[in-house]
Amino acid sequence: MFAKSLISLSFFLALSAPVLVFATSPAGLVPCGTQSSTASGDDKVTNPCGFNDIITLFQKGINFLIQLGVILAALGFAYAGFLYITAMGSEEKIHHAHSIFLKVIWGFVFMLSAWLIVRVLETTFLTTDQQKRSFLSAPTDTKVVVPPPADVMNIN
């Protein structure tokens, strides 16, 4: 039993490693409250948190939960597939594997449809400026830097 739990835990950690790598950013979860002025000896925070930082926290939390849901759905499908393959014709085990497949599908559809309904309502009723500060838009501190083409760069 312990070996089976250890194998399951290592399998989960291996699949969740990409999510954990993307979870780390130089700004942390909230890009505020990290700098303090110790020069004057008062230890005051020079970049206090505001409303936009709370929105950033919720954005990162929602993105993390969606990524975690995708990983858990993949694990559920893998487990149900394993049960289906190892059923060896047993109707009870095949029925159990099918029920796991259905539960994972319904959970995944429920999660994504909830996100989609909120996203459609947001794009319908909010202005473009309000959508930028939305919970579901991408966090503002993640910027993709694209290098210039090779012919533009001066390589000696």
Question: Can you lay out the helices and strands and say which pair or pack?
Answer:
Layout: H1 2-23, E1 36-37, E2 44-45, H2 51-85, H3 91-125, H4 128-132
Antiparallel strand pairs: 1-2
Question: What would your notes on this structure say?
Answer:
The protein is mainly α and 156 residues long. It has one domain (2-132). It is 62% helix and 3% strand. The chain is built from 4 helices and 2 strands. The chain has a two-stranded antiparallel ribbon with strand order 1-2. The longest helix has 35 residues, at 51-85. The radius of gyration is 23 Å and the shape is elongated. The chain starts with a helix and ends in a 24-residue tail after the last helix. Mean pLDDT is 76; it is low at 142-146.
